[in-house]
Amino acid sequence: MHIPLVDLGRQYRSIEPEIRGAIDQVLADTAFILGPHAEQFETEFAAFCGTKHCVGLNSGTDGLLLAYAALGIGPGDEVITVANTFFATTEPLGHLGATPVFVDIDPETYLIDVSTIEAAITKRTKAIVPVHLYGQMAPMQPILAIARKHNLAVIEDCAQAHAAEQNGQKAGTYGDIGVYSFYPGKNLGAYGDAGCIITSNAKLAAAIRSLRDHGRLSKYEHATIGYSSRLDGIQAAILSAKLPHLAAWTETRRAHAARYTELLPSTMKKPVEAPGNQHVYHLYTIEVDERDEVLKRLKAAGIGAGVHYPIPLHRQPAYAHLGTKAGTLPVTERVATRILSLPMFAELQSEELEVVTQALVGVALTHA
Ligand SMILES: *Cc1c(COP(=O)(O)O)cnc(C)c1O
Question: Is 85 in the pocket of ligand 1 (CB under 6 A)?
Fold first, then answer.
């Protein structure tokens, strides 16, 4: 028996006619770059999130880049975020001449530790980037309060948090801009690269609309130096076909997570859903002793577990020039050696959840 971390084929087979119909329509319309299918998805996703504007893009990474650029983040500026995230959260800052400043995480939720933010603010700080990691939103009210006090922008990295909510409000609607990825393995995934930003700010939306398309004002007129970061029609049509299923897929993920929590030993550190949060379980991440050995043994047993993420960003070779010493983010560094993500996708079967937990209990090593 092989149980992968994520199985995109099962989902595809469950909606194959809808997907093929959507792709055929784009081919018939020859609307490949932006166009009516992209516009339709933008309208639908903005409505789904409960915000005014959605700008469709080629990836979540460029969503972050364009968000940072539209907010005027540039040379010498600093942006506060976490190191326990995917590299793309901070990568675009480098292209703008800006620098990430990493703060530690909460050991219960693995999300930004709000109590560490203010000490990291300097005269050059321009923004805070909460990452809604694993599918759970960072505490937005205290983050917004700090941002208002110090006049900072807030960009929410929602790449793992489609349909996640905090106090009834969707991810990406609290800050100035929310950035989503539709990378195939995300909770709402395209069949190629895709992403978007959402915002209630018409000026920021217009700026990003122009930046994604070569800084265009019109077909032959370029107002600024922009980028080529547009959403393509086929991906947009696929996303429109999938969006109506997202709520049900999310409920199933939550049910799987609840079952894992019930099946796993009570002594094990399991995901903690903070009050007010609707966690969407992009990943179900636990902690184990001797993580690398457990991972190896699970792989040998046919279980596709993963680690998100083994190397915190401040310890990446690409950030060696920042000179951040080991030990500066103690919680981040400790959990990076312990976290383990279990198979999680809506189409998992209940017997598979049992096989995974039994295998894990069988291979887990506990320190005496
Ligand atoms: C996936 C991801 C991104 C990047 O999105 P892409 O669409 O792959 O470019 C950014 N941040 C986080 C936290 C992610 O998980």
Answer: yes
**For residue 366, what pLDDT band results from cuts at 50, 70 and 90?**
low
In the numeric block, the tokens 């005496």 are attached to: 368
d(CA 119, CA 129): 15
Q: Is the pLDDT of residue 367 over 90?
A: no
CA–centroid distance, 11 to ligand 1, in Å, is 21
Q: How far is the CA of 158 from the centre of ligand 1 (A)?
A: 8
* pLDDT value of position 368: 42
Cβ(194)–Cβ(57) below 8 Å: yes
Q: Which of 90, 183, 188, 230 for mutating ligand 1's site (highest number of atoms within 8 Å of CB)? A: 183
Q: What is the CA radius of gyration of the chain?
A: 21
Read off the pLDDT of residues 23-69 as tens digits, 9 standing for 90 and up.
999 999 999 999 999 999 999 999 999 999 999 999 999 999 999 99
* DSSP symbol at 243: G
Residues with Cβ within 8 Å of residue 296, at least 6 apart in sequence: none
Q: How far is the CA of 184 from the centre of ligand 1 (A)?
A: 11
Q: Distance from the CA of 358 to the center of ligand 1, in angstroms?
A: 31
pTM above 0.85, yes or no: yes
For 293, the token pair is 């050995």
| Residues 101-154 pLDDT 10s | 999 999 999 999 999 999 999 999 999 999 999 999 999 999 999 999 999 999
User: Does ligand 1 come within 6 angstroms of the Cβ of 86?
Assistant: yes
List helix spans (H) across the chain. Answer: 8-29, 35-49, 60-70, 91-95, 140-150, 202-211, 233-242, 246-263, 291-300, 330-336, 350-363
